[in-house]
């Protein structure tokens, strides 16, 4: 059975994934890092032969590597709510 946090995390992920408007690259990297940390934890790999974009993603994830899965989910939800509320005010 999924917790309330897991359900809220999935809902936030779905809403952000469905956005039609672009989100700033630095914000997208935060979403990426929180998502990866929430779902994979410290288990990450990086191919040093990858492109610059992959390096930025890996760096963003490494910055939150000590964060618990629970905290990463909470931070993802918090950031999603900020972005979604700003989009509603603009639209």
What secondary-structure arrangement, pairings included, does this model have?
Layout (H helix, E strand, L loop, with lengths): L3 H14 L7 H16 L11 H11 L6 H22 L1
Rounded average pLDDT? 89
If you compute it from the alpha carbons, what radius of gyration comes out, rounded to the nearest whole angstrom? Answer: 14 Å
Uncertain spans, ≥5 residues at pLDDT below 50? none
Q: Termini separation (Å)?
A: 36 Å
Quaternary organisation: single chain
Task: Label the overall shape.
Answer: globular
Number of helices: 4
SSE ordering? HHHH
Please provide the count of β strands. Answer: 0
What share of the residues lie within helices?
A: 55-70%
Q: What proportion of the residues form beta strands (DSSP E)?
A: under 5%
Descriptive account of the structure:
- By secondary structure, the chain is mainly α.
- It has 4 helices and no strands.
- The chain is globular.
- The termini are far apart.
Offer a concise description of the structure.
Helix content is 69%, strand content 0%. The protein contains 4 helices and no strands.
What tags apply to this protein structure?
mainly alpha, 69% helix
